[in-house]
Amino acid sequence: MTPTAAKGAAAACDTGCCGTPISLKPPAKKAHNHDAESAGGDHDGHDHGPLPAWPRIAAALVVAIAAELSHLLLPDTLAWRITGMGLAAVAIGLAGLGIYQSGIRSLLRGKLGIDALMSVAVTGAFLIGQWPEAAMVMALYALAELIEHRAADRARNAIGGLMALAPDEAEMQTPQGDWQRVAAREVPVGAVVRVRPGDRVPLDGVVTAGASAIDQASVTGESIPVDKTVGDTVFAATVNQTGELQMRVTSETGHTTLDRIIESVERAQASRAPTQRFIERFAAIYTPTVFVLALAVAVLPPLLFGWPWLEAIYKALVLLVIACPCALVISTPVTVVSGLTAAARRGILIKGGTHLESARKLRAVALDKTGTLTEGKPVLVDWQAWGGADDVATRAAAASLALRSDHPVSKAIAAGIERNDAPVDDFRALVGRGVEGRVAGRALVLGNHRLIEERGLCSPALEAALTAHEQQGRTVTLLADEAAVLGLFAVADTVKPGSRAAIAELKALGITPVMLTGDNTTTARAVAEAAGIADARGGLLPEDKLAAVNEMRQRYGATGMTGDGINDAPALAQADIGFAMGAAGTDIAMEAADVVIMNDDLGRIAETVRLSRRTHAVLWQNISLAIGIKVVFFGLAIFGSATMWMAVFADMGASLLVVANGLRLLRALPPVHTPS
Edge-to-edge, what's the strand order for the sheet holding 205-209? Predict the structure, then answer.
């Protein structure tokens, strides 16, 4: 009864109701040939019949119908009875040889699995003279198994199909400067690759020449193409849409972002979700219990109430067929696989069914500031000439000095000013303060508040202006000559456009957002206000963030943590659910997290919670369906007139219902655009 867990990242993730692995490997790398599997229980992955599955099951159904018709229409003579029994035996052999082999192995190991139940039921029915029914039951059961596995394959193919998007060849630049098409697996890290419009990117890399729009829905789930230019990262399997790009390869085949997604999802699905573990423990007790109950139905009524033995045995065999917990066992893995796949198709990489189920319980989320709520890089947001200085001259001088500095704040100033670059003489960096130089023969400095104070150029009006900017979370750089301040340039890490809407979504789900940052408290409050967060905590070291997450767990209950840096890793690991921003995040943060948001969209946290809640609802719908149908037919079998036909249709119907219901989660989030 216990499904076989896959070993390692590359193995099967979950099992069907009879223990057959549902592999999430891409089609080219499948470990199992499903066309050669017996739907009736080839559970060791081998074909036990002379024909592939569909023709063999079709033949079994035809022969079983012939056996039924011979029983109903032909004379009840010994010759015709032997003919009918022979037809039934052929049908059982075609459909059920694999089931018998698996059932015998289970019995030899002391386990009462589903195949053992079906083997005993069919054999018993045949021996007590119900051979037409035994043949039809086995054929229908085999057909149900085949349909069930084909339906479950949809979840596997949805994620496995992503791997097929990566092209097999790449156009690589040779040492002589020519372009040559080579196998993608032969392209080394550091090589330059050309990607033409309409082609798929073969490997991860950084753009070195050109500009284009990239459809990266297959990796990040973004429905709108993203503009890429020199210095931007591109992912394998994404589609170059408009312009030719040259890129320097940063990851070889097998280690791209898409490879990591597939590997992580496979590893995640090899683990068991809480509901799935519960169902497996329940089934391990349920099956032998039902076997004992069926034995009691076969023996006790004839002894205690005088029932005919054949009638009691028949009811017991019907009970065994009804008892097969196919629907119950398969209800959880198919649902969890579908939920994980739906998330992965939107750029949400959930590392296991446990986290998929647990996300629904979140009551609070701690959010890092830089790179999570904000863009993660400084931008010039405001500037003004000071003390009557000329606007144009002030702007040009500041840009000229900023261009020659590698400091991020200087780069933001240079990028934010329309400028005519003027020559700078005697340029020098002032460590911890700013830079100085001569612009058009005039000695100038571009530096922080401390530098201006040291030069004695501060005034009450200037201090008031600086305070006003600092209260908004801005860093102010000042341009000054030897006598006066000439201009103020305010730089800030701006809030991402979607952050406020994402926070509102979390609140609507009943989740309290709290911002945790190492920046000063003033900046923290300004950013939190812009994002719509009431609780902002600044000046925190990594250990402080860890303590804050623990405090939030005590106060609110289940708490998530969202971050992208090394300093967030301890809190990510400690939280009930850790969310890492994958596009900008560090490898350490991504390893520590339970969920990776591949496109850094904060709104995907709310999507994860909604998907978790829907997955939980579908899981319990499936469990209720499976158990409810069993209970009804148990009553009919013991006290009513349920037949084996009714039993097998009930079992088959319940299995197909829970599979179809679980697969609905693939539509819970719109599928990504797959380029043709």
Answer: 179-183, 169-173, 192-195, 245-249, 205-209, 233-234
